[in-house]
Amino acid sequence: MKYLSLTSLHVGDICKVARIQAGRSATRRLYEMGFNTGAQVKVLKNDRGPIIVGLGGQKVALGRGLAEKMLVGIEQ
Amino acid sequence: MSMTIALVGNPNSGKTTLFNALTGANQHVGNWPGVTVERKEGQTRYKNQVYTVVDLPGTYSLGAFSEDEVVAREFILTGNPDVVINVVDATNIERNLYLTTQLLEMGAKVVVALNMVDEAEAREISVDEKALTKRLGIPVIPTVASRRRGMDELMEAATAVMYAPLNGHARLSYGESIDRKIAELKNLLTKEDFAYPPGWLALKLLEGDAYAQSVVDQSQTLQGSPAYGRFWNEVAAHAEDYQLEIVDSRYKFVGEITKDTVRRPKVAVQTTTDRVDRVLTHKYWGMPIFAVIMFIVFQLTFVIGEDLLGEVMVTGVDYIGEVFESLLLAVHAPQWLIDFTANGIVAGVGAVIEFVPLIVILYMLMGFLEDSGYMARAAYVMDNTMRLVGLQGKTFISMIVGFGCNVPGVMATRTLESKKDRMIAILINPFMSCGAKIPIYLVFIAAFFPSHGGLILFSVYALGIAIAFLMGKIFSKTLFKGESSHFIMELPPYRKPTLRNVLRNMWDNVSGFLTRAGTTIFAVVSLLWVLAVLPAGVEPYGAESILGRIGLLIAPIFKPAGFGSWQAAVGLFSGIAAKEAVVATLGMVYAGVEAGTELVAAIREVFTPLTAVSFMVMTLLYTPCAATLGTIRKETGSTKWALFSAVYTFTIAWVLAVFIFQVGSLLGFS
Ligand SMILES: Nc1nc2c(ncn2[C@@H]2O[C@H](COP(=O)(O)OP(=O)(O)O)[C@@H](O)[C@H]2O)c(=O)[nH]1
Q: What's the rounded Cα separation, in Å, for the pair B544 and B34?
């Protein structure tokens, strides 16, 4: 599996969180909001402004800066 | 003493709704994350026993990440609640149970309210709560807080847990090596008498919790202990890994217990929310749509609140005034009392009361938007713009709360994680025009721009936002440099607003307004009335009265802005006590001039359209009221910032008002 930044995905893509490199506190916050390693994420909107993803039936908006630092693996 | 029930849960899990269902209290309910910014208390009755219910801030975790989390966990650990009700959103159960694991770690007595089971059902998510109860070792009770379903069962379980000794709840394992470290550390910690359970403290220390660290740092014995030093030397190299491993272990635990107790459809049901969001969060249309929605809100407020109901209120207040007057005449009350009632109270407080319908309508509409879930989208579409000025979208939520009242607006900044974001958000919040200022605009609109009410009101609010942005930019370039925190925000599903929530939201704002009218405003008006008729012998409400002389002293400051009358000066000055006082004071000093003159007519005499605009801008932006300044002091922890905020807002307001008047005059407006 190759790792990509979340921002490089397209709407409809489903991926799994692999690694977050956003500094300690932001990484932790993401973990606690459910973006822990292996969590399944679906891209719902990715054009301008924060990216919107579906996570466990919830919609979460992530700033682009942050989304860039989230590395994910694409599922086939 | 009654037993205490604490409510904890993720933002937007329905915690406030559950609190209201239990206590029947008037709580502000919002369909956006982070509306409960303070601890709130209420009472509930079950089987003839009264219980105190404490609503704690909604959080995702109970770490030391934001102030909200610290408040919540401090209460659970040291406030001695007899039971904790953990509200869990059934539609997002994994993430919600993460918080539950932390409650288990604390050794709290917990009952899970599995909320929103109706919504889960609609999305074809099924939860086997009996099996879940077994796995967690704590009762899991399905509820629908918004329809008060499951409340008795919840109280039944909560009271049962409350009176029974703690036992049988699940224990988490963090992997063999961390478990061992926790046990070692716990042993060391037990030597000292901390206010927190040593096992929990040990876990938090390994998690790198700054707050727990500071607690332990205060212990001399431990700091001097070689065993303790040796322990940390060993751990140091792994500290970072431990943190994420601990978080991961919690999720692993949650994953295991939900694996065969929660079932979801393979393909998530396409919801209306997704379809609506495609439009409302559109990359180009999102912003204009937000502007149009707000414009419609103000326009509707005007049409219903003023055109339809305004006249009724004016007639009503006049009528009550007359009734009072004839009553007082009938009992041969002294002339001063009659005068005080007619010109002080009825003209002053009455001028404020006349605007109640408008405020009712405005907050019902805002409540409708909030309860529908739209406001989180507003914050989302604003994020781009906010970034441009060095802020982030979440700041916008505290700004919208400020439209109601700046006191909760300033408190709502607690959900911002970075110090920089938070300080700026606090300092710009007063530019958000609060409900108490509405009467001021309305009087001037009625006097000069009666046919453009909605537009003017909208522009005033927009100007407030623009100035807030501008100052945000300046602050982030000067006083508070650095990165603004990341934008992470949940977008709750759209829901049909319930009448109850809409009314409650409205009442939250209106009751404050009415209370102030009866207390602060009444007091200010009474005091000013005395000053306006003294010293004996001068013409009441004249320039020779004490009030007039004070006004004349301040008035020159406002001369360059076009409203250098002593009445205007006194009005603005009294507004620092509370913003409604501006209109109340104007009502009194002008009504006194000529008996029976309506405030609006008097304003038309004294102001011009241009000075009306500059006066409105002044009131929009100048020094916040005493309550807001007090809150700023509390939230920033410094008197310096409160003073700074009082002075800089005044300066900006003055500069802009002068600018408008001077440039307007040059251009030939009057
Ligand atoms: N369908 C459904 N909606 C609910 C339920 N409980 C709360 N809500 C709605 O969820 C939204 C958020 O609730 P709120 O109490 O403000 O959540 P808090 O942030 O946890 O305090 C509101 O619009 C409520 O009306 C429930 O059991 N079922």
A: 52
Q: What is the pLDDT of residues B366-409, one digit of tens each?
A: 888 888 889 889 888 888 888 888 888 888 878 887 887 787 78
State the pTM of this model.
0.77
Q: What is the pLDDT of residues B233-253, one digit of tens each?
A: 877 777 777 888 888 899 999
| Residue A20: strand pairing partners | A70
Instruction: Tell me the chain B residues in contact with residue A50 when contact means C-beta distances shorter than 8 Å.
Output: 380, 383, 393, 487, 489
Shared domain for B448 and B590, answered yes or no, is yes
Binary contact (A63, B274; C-beta < 8 A): no
* Three-state secondary structure readout of B568-631: HHHHHHHCCCCCHHHHHHHHHHHHHHCCCCCHHHHHHHHCCHHHHHHHHHHHHHCCCCHHHHHH
Percent of chain B with pLDDT over 70: 94
The listed range with the strongest mean pLDDT (A39-53, B65-79, B510-524) is: A39-53
Mean pLDDT across chain B: 84
**Residue numbers in B near A67 (CB within 8 A):** none
Q: Is residue B218 part of a domain?
A: yes
Nearest residue, CB atoms, B123 vs list A27, A30, A57: A57
How far is B338 from B344, CA to CA, in rounded Å?
9
B238 touching chain A per CB within 8 A: no
**What's the domain range around B191?**
176-237
- The SS3 of residue B2 is coil
Same domain, B180 and B326: no
**B122 and B227, same domain (yes or no):** no
In a domain, B493, yes or no: no
